[in-house]
Amino acid sequence: MTEWLPQLELFWRPALTGALLAILLPLLGLTLRLRHEYWAALAYGQVGAAGALGALVFGYPPLLGGLAASLAAAIAKHPLEKRLLTTGLFPLLFVLGWSVCQLLTANLPGVERPGAALFEGQLYFAGVEMLVGAALALVVGGIFLWRKGADLLLAHLYPAHFHAQGRPLWPVRIGFDLLVAAVLALAVMSLGVMGAFALIFIPPWLVCAFSPSWRVALIAAPILSFLAYALAFAIALTHDQPFGSMLALVLCVTALCLLVSVLVRGGGALCSAGTVGGSEE
Length: 281
Known about the structure:
This protein is 80% helix and 0% strand. By secondary structure, it is mostly helical.
């Protein structure tokens, strides 16, 4: 603790930036899991990283390129999903983003280091702009989920409700996809592709396995995410470790501990049909 506090005084902006994202990402991840679209998180993040590197090559701000690429992928999803299964579309987008990142870092000077930072995370270098962006994302995302959260559930569980009322489904669905894409593009710039994916996937997955209701899951997921984030930040900062990798490791160890506890107690399978969000099948 005595070693951590002086460093926290120096890195309080990055710490707060990551904390805000650690609260928002699992809230988005719960709905992605409900819709069986958690692959979208990895796809949007990797496409955003490719866009950020492409913008850097042409002399534009990386965040602008990442946002443009992620939002373009979210917009293209809806006409494409009518002809392609989204279970194949998102892995395709991920592979596309990964290949573009690899080719840019391998063939262009000065791109290798930013490319590695986008994948591993560069939270320690997050400045005022990233902090403002994270705060704005949390406010906008929180308002959207508060106002449209019930509609998101109905759109997935009971779409006939919208047809019966003569209300279109696409504003809710596209609005959520654009929100996820924008937040992930922002998160990748600080947490890295895998760090952002770990926060948006693992806490919702674990919480849905044990929460008795959707409302409890909405409270428990960001709490679990924040605690894992705080532990990972403290360990990475005091032991000079890459943050994205440490965050993913802490979340994975947490998940494995819960898995072992379920096996020891002889409980049911994680994410069974009786848990929040239904079965994985």
